[in-house]
Write a structure and sequence with these properties.
Order of helices and strands: HHEEHEHEHEEHHEEEE
CATH topology: Rossmann fold
Strand order of the largest sheet: 5-4-3-6-7-8-9-10
Distance between the termini: 21 Å
Helix content: 25-40%
Number of domains: 1
Shape: globular
Mean pLDDT: 71
Low-confidence stretches: 156-214
CATH architecture: 3-Layer(aba) Sandwich
Number of strands: 10
Structural class: alpha/beta
Strand content: 25-35%
CATH class: Alpha Beta
């Protein structure tokens, strides 16, 4: 049966989906750049994803799929995966209004009905990375990304350790710890950008092993 936390998260995002419908959702779809984390660190600054043109990309925990829409506008072939039907309906409404089209799948990032080694890149911004069990969704992503692919996620937390994300994923208080994670060949490499509210920052990296499924 489904874990309790997945049902709770689905209910929570169904209730909060109203905040992201209509003009709010469309604004996200039409942004020139995507941002990572609760303080909105621009992709142009972090350069986590690089050139995505021609890549098959899956967004895990896509919500209203504005990240996937940004990828599509840059020449990628995205697929959005989310557990919340209401948010996927919002994404489809944005597709109808903008003309940007790509597949959407209603599923948990812990169990995605996609074939192994079918994507070049998997990303999660505040979706699977904070709402799913990392010991389930990361091996799942490694499986359908394949050995030569990569995975990027964003995990906000308040620890100042240089060892990467802590086990407890919490909203930051005085500083923003935006972690850009890249997994390749069954490993997770974490590049953590620490940004204080005054704008200063530093970079640190660590590596933790995760086995891919199978």
């Amino acid at each position: 049966s489904e874990p309790d936390y997945l049902a709770i998260n689905r209910e929570r995002w169904t209730r909060s989906n109203e905040e992201y419908t209509g003009s709010s959702a469309i604004r996200g779809w039409l942004k020139d750049d995507i941002t990572w984390g609760v303080f909105g660190v621009p992709e142009a600054e972090l350069a986590v994803l690089g050139n995505v043109e021609g890549l098959d990309v899956v967004e895990l925990g896509c919500g209203t799929a504005y990240f996937a829409a940004w990828l599509a506008r840059r020449g990628a072939r995205p697929v959005g995966v989310d557990i919340t039907q209401a948010q996927l309906e919002t994404a489809r409404a944005c597709m109808a209004e903008t003309g940007i089209q790509f597949p959407l799948i209603e599923a948990s990032a812990e169990n995605v009905p996609l074939p192994d080694a079918s994507f070049d890149l998997a990303i999660s911004e505040h979706g699977a990375s904070t709402w799913c069990d990392p010991y389930r969704w990361i091996p799942e992503a490694a499986g359908f990304c394949g050995r030569a692919a990569a995975s990027s996620s964003c995990t906000p937390h308040r620890s100042r350790s240089s060892a990467g994300p802590t086990s407890a994923m919490r909203r930051p208080s005085s500083s923003d710890r935006t972690s850009a994670c890249t997994a390749s060949s069954g490993h997770l490499t974490t590049a953590s950008s620490s940004r204080s509210r005054t704008g200063s920052g530093s970079m640190c990296c660590s590596e933790r092993g995760f086995r891919s499924k199978g």
